[in-house]
């Protein structure tokens, strides 16, 4: 397999004779199946050979590759073997990809420094498991809440029974004095969730969550962030084209603009979620809340157009995947938001609000202006309360003018 990337028999023999030689042909095959460009694959194969020699010289084996130590080694690498890219970013990427391959075939059990364990206390690990199992929290939410839990645990100590309202309040005020309003709001929610969890398990005083002060914030006080109908049309036109990237971007933008999906919803969509016979789309959003939405004709056509030329992927039934190797689904909604930002730039759409969520607001605003009742809009957006959906009523200025009362005159 190495002959695909190296024309020199001497180089091929050199790579196969090294510590990584037993697995390097298989690694080359995995790179080809993943769709890597040959120039990138060559660098990754050199990196695989490099980390193999480094591991053996450090007294280790490929069963316990120390990727962190290899990364540190690259800062001052003077090894005679690597030709090109000693400190190139492709070297560490290639080494990481090789370690993932070794784990996948059962050769290695760890791709980081051996002996590194989860440093978080047991209560934090149990809290994460509880958030996922009982609250259906997304990984991003679990990370955020866990960070806040670790901070208060570090500040107040491990003896949870001795925590008191004053200590909780002082910790909150100290943290909020060093961050912005958005972070403070999230901190309020995160701390209260953790304290309720501890209280339910009897590990701290009851109702200690009420010691977290209410942050001064007016919910839904701002106007919705949305694009005009003309801007949305320009955004869709900017995704026209026959290339794989344009077909994917068009399908993503239409899903967001027509159905008001969240970025994470689009990233998590699977082929089985589309019921073509009934023309519906199954979406699982926050808290594992599932709903079936009607699939508009233009959205369905765009998805079919993309699936017709999407690169084949093994063990992956996600609809949308990356356009560069390795062809994998988006890990989070950030990738979907990046697609929208790039499309807005191509379309020349100038807006202070960028990303996928602005299209969710736009979809809700457009439905309202077309006379769709708030309760129906709430069903499409999967809101838990009508108050959240009523937020979009502020964007319908023409309707508001009809019910607005004249400003009272000041009597002399």
- Strand count: 3
Give the second-level CATH assignment, the architecture of the largest domain. Orthogonal Bundle
Ends distance: 93 Å
Number of domains: 3
CATH class of the largest domain: Mainly Alpha
CATH homologous superfamily assignment of the largest domain: Intergrase catalytic core
Structural class: mainly alpha
Query: Rough shape?
Result: globular
Largest sheet: 3 strands, antiparallel
Mean pLDDT metric: 83
Helix content: 40-55%
As for the CATH topology of the largest domain, it is hpI Integrase, Chain A
Radius of gyration, CA atoms, in whole angstroms = 27 Å
Count the DSSP helices. Answer: 18
Strand order of the largest sheet: 1-2-3
Query: Strand content of the residues, in percent?
Result: under 5%
Order of helices and strands: HHHHHHHHHHHHEEEHHHHHH
């Amino acid at each position: 397999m190495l002959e695909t990337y190296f024309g020199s028999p001497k180089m091929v023999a050199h790579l196969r004779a090294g510590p990584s030689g037993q697995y390097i042909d298989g690694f080359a095959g995995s790179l080809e199946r993943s769709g890597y460009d040959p120039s990138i694959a060559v660098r990754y194969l050199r990196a695989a050979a490099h980390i193999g020699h480094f591991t053996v010289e450090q007294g280790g084996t490929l069963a316990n590759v120390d990727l962190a130590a290899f990364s540190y080694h690259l800062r001052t690498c003077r090894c005679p073997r690597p030709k090109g890219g000693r400190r190139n970013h492709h070297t560490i990427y290639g080494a990481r990809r090789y370690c993932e391959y070794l784990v996948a075939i059962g050769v290695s059990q760890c791709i980081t420094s051996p002996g590194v364990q989860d440093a978080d206390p047991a209560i934090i690990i149990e809290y994460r498991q509880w958030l996922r199992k009982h609250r259906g929290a997304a990984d991003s939410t679990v990370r955020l809440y866990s960070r806040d839990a670790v901070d208060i645990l570090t500040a107040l100590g491990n003896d949870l029974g001795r925590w008191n309202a004053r200590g909780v309040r002082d910790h909150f005020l100290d943290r909020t004095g060093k961050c912005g309003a958005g972070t403070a709001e999230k901190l309020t929610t995160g701390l209260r969730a953790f304290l309720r969890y501890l209280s339910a398990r009897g590990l701290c005083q009851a109702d200690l969550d009420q010691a977290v002060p209410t942050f001064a914030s007016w919910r839904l006080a701002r106007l919705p962030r949305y694009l005009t109908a003309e801007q949305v049309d320009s955004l869709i036109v900017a995704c026209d084209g026959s290339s794989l990237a344009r077909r994917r971007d068009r399908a993503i933008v239409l899903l967001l603009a027509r159905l008001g999906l969240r970025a994470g919803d689009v990233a998590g969509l699977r082929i089985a979620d589309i019921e073509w016979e009934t023309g519906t789309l199954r979406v699982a959003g926050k808290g594992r809340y599932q709903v079936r939405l009607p699939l508009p004709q233009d959205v369905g056509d765009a998805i079919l157009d993309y699936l017709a030329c999407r690169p084949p992927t093994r063990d992956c039934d996600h609809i949308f995947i990356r356009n560069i190797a390795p062809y994998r689904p988006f890990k989070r909604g950030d990738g979907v938001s990046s697609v929208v930002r790039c499309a807005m730039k191509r379309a020349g759409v100038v807006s202070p609000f960028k990303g996928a969520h602005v299209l969710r607001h736009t979809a809700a605003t457009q439905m309202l202006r077309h006379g769709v009742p708030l309760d129906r809009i709430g069903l499409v957006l999967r809101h838990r309360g009508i108050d959240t959906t009523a937020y979009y009523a502020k964007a319908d200025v023409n309707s508001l003018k009809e019910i607005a009362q004249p400003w009272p005159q000041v009597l002399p």
